[in-house]
Amino acid sequence: MAVGALIERVVLDALVPDQIEIAKDQLKRESRQLELQWALRVERARYEAERSASV
User: Fold this and answer.
1) Of all residues in the chain, what percent carry a pLDDT higher than 90?
2) Torsions phi, psi of 34, nearest 5?
C-alpha cells in the first residue's frame, strides 16, 4: 500500500467517529424542532376546535 493511501485511510478513520457524532447531534436538533412544530400544530388545532365550538 502506498504511503499516501495509508495516510488517507488513517485520516478518514479518525474523522468517521466525529462525523457520526456531528450527524447524531444534528438529528437530535431536527427531532426537537419537529416535536415543537407538532406541539404548536396540536395547540392551534385545539384552539381552532374550541373557537368553532363556542360560535
Assistant:
1) 53
2) -65, -40
